[in-house]
Design a protein that fits this description.
There is one protein chain. By secondary structure, the protein is an alpha+beta fold. Among the domains are: 192 residues, no CATH class; 81 residues, no CATH class; 36 residues, no CATH class. 40% of the residues lie in helices and 13% in strands. The chain has 17 helices and 11 strands. The strands form 4 sheets. It has a 5-stranded antiparallel beta sheet. A two-stranded antiparallel ribbon has the order 1-3. Helix 6 crosses helix 9 and helix 11 packs antiparallel against helix 14. The protein binds adenosine monophosphate and magnesium ion. Adenosine monophosphate binds next to loops.
Length: 520
């Protein structure tokens, strides 16, 4: 395996001088050198062929011992120096101080086909940033991260990627429900991949310590490699940088809302500076459409990171990034202007995205109302979001009376749609029908367009859980099956038709299928 190593982060930026692995506060450094823990009997469960290709790894190499060794942390690739990144963050709205890669170990960067990729093992052992943690990850959360990051990519949502999923062969102790019932689970390691894993929290760390020198170095590095179009460092360009990050973050959130993805832990240490979905923990997909839903049991009380709040939280997180970058600019107004603009842009982009979901080509005054009325209807009775939009594409103009029937399979309790509720849906279909008549698209043209933005298959929590249950007894076929299906989430795939279905009732309250804790 000949990788085109092209390290920059650990070549251009300062490291800590302490080479021990003890947990500590790290000052004046962007990262700490650290060696992955050697797993006792690593085993490759799955690798993403597409990611291999992106990295210049061929099919035979994937099954080689070298691949197993490098991406399980058993061996360090020649002439590379793994490291854990230092960052801080706001968690659930509170300043949390230094966090850092507690179990993420960056191996190296690769340049292939003019693209730069950083490769990071998650669950590969302790680092100076491990705090109370063990630096490890369990199989269930690793399966979820591995499958979902590749699924999100194929949905067209900006995301970190995944190269491989391995068993470590070591058991890991977890109290999954935080209720005093700790048990051993299988340990696993995911190799995840992104142009960079820099987060808002990396900037917050230096700002919080008044370390403007390193704050500037980090910002200049980020612009140079990931926003080169902005040009050389200057106050004006730092503002442009913040604007670019804001725009990318907004774009990511619009995609999340479009596909019904709820991140679950939108802390500032989980916000990528590239606007990528990062750190797949207790995430989930809306099944019944619900603005108030969050998959994260840790957030059960305040539901800070609920579906409907994601756009606001992104803005709050951007405000924290603005505060962190402020010392480089020393003027608040340009940041405020950008943050205010986010709110205006969100309205416009959200409306545009919803028009696409509804198959509307032209813009009209009443669209906002049409969308709000639809949201009200979706809340009348538990209605599966993914199925609803997909079924709606079957609607034929001029068939208002058939409207409810067209989307019926999306209702968890179709018998509830009567009297007032039925009336409301009829009124909505009536308006929608009129609206469609102002368009020039034919029914089939509209269906094609709708099906390109409304996925047929998403990684529902119960699906991931079924794959996890099987993986726990050594059967990885379902991981492979779901992986394949989720590569084409917008296509009708007759062999996978059974996954175009509402969540089964048994999964409604089953652990891992409805809500998840942060334990991973
Ligand atoms: P998360 O909620 O997964 O984004 O993690 C928040 C912080 O806790 C990050 O600094 C992680 O690196 C750290 N962390 C999470 N799990 C572990 C673990 N098992 N061992 C060490 N650090 C961890
Ligand atoms: Mg995190």
């Amino acid at each position: 395996m000949k990788l085109k190593i092209a390290d920059t982060f650990n070549k251009e930026l300062p490291s800590g001088t302490n080479l021990s692995n003890t947990r500590r506060k790290v000052f004046g450094a962007m990262y700490s050198y650290v060696k992955p823990r050697v797993p006792s009997s690593p085993k490759l469960i799955h690798a993403s062929q597409e990611m291999c290709k992106n990295l210049g790894v061929n099919a035979e190499e994937v099954t080689s011992n070298e691949f197993l060794n490098i991406f399980s942390g058993t061996k360090i690739y020649q002439d590379t120096q793994p490291y854990a990144m230092a960052y801080a963050g706001h968690q659930f709205g509170n300043w949390a101080g230094q966090l850092g890669d507690g179990r993420g170990i960056n191996l190296f960067e690769i340049e292939h086909n003019t693209k730069r990729w950083a490769l990071q093992l998650k669950g590969a052992g302790e680092t100076p940033y491990s705090r109370q943690g063990d630096g490890l990850a369990v199989l269930r959360s690793s399966v979820r991260e591995y499958l979902c990051s590749e699924a999100m990519y194929h949905l067209g949502v900006p995301t970190t990627r995944a190269l491989s999923l391995m068993l470590s062969g070591d058991d890991v102790l977890r109290d999954m429900l935080y209720n005093g019932n700790a048990a051993y689970e299988k340990g696993a390691i995911v190799c995840r991949v992104a142009p960079t894993f820099i987060r808002f929290g990396n900037f917050e760390l230096f700002a919080s310590r008044n370390d403007t020198e390193n704050l500037k170095k980090l910002t200049d590095y980020t612009i140079k490699h990931f926003y080169p179009e902005l040009g050389l460092p200057s106050k004006a360009n730092y503002i442009k940088f913040f604007k670019a990050v804001t725009d990318k973050t907004l774009e990511m959130i619009i995609h999340w809302q479009r596909v019904g993805f709820v991140h679950g832990v939108m802390n500032t240490d989980n916000m990528s500076i590239l606007g990528l979905t990062i750190d797949y923990g207790p995430y989930g997909w809306l099944e019944g459409f619900d603005f108030g839903w969050t998959p994260n049991t840790t957030d059960r009380e305040h539901k800070r990171y609920r579906y409907g709040n994601q756009p606001n939280i992104a803005l709050w997180n951007l405000l924290q990034l603005a505060n962190a970058l402020y010392p480089l600019v020393e003027e608040a107004e340009p940041f405020e202007t950008i943050l205010n603009q986010y709110q205006k842009d969100f309205e416009v982009e959200f409306l545009e995205m919803m028009r696409l979901k509804l198959g509307l080509d032209i813009k009209t005054e009443g669209d906002k109302q049409l969308i709000e009325d639809l949201e009200d209807c979706l809340l009348l009775s538990e209605t599966d979001m993914t199925m609803f939009y997909r079924l709606l594409s079957n609607y034929e103009k001029g068939s208002v009376d058939e409207g409810i029937k067209t989307v019926k399979d999306a209702f968890y309790n179709p018998q509830e749609i009567k009297e007032d509720k039925k009336k409301k849906w009829e009124v909505w279909f009536n308006t929608y029908d009129k609206r469609l008549n102002s368009e020039s698209l034919t029914d089939s043209e509209r269906q094609l367009k709708m099906n390109a933005v409304n996925p047929k298959y998403v990684l529902r929590n119960y699906m991931a859980q079924l794959a996890i249950d099987k993986a726990n007894v050594g059967d990885y076929d379902l991981i492979d099956d779901l992986f394949k299906m989720l590569k084409n989430p917008y296509n009708n795939q007759p062999e996978y038709e059974k996954w175009f279905a509402k969540r089964p009732e048994w999964a409604r309250h089953k652990v891992g299928c409805s809500m998840l804790s942060c334990s991973s």
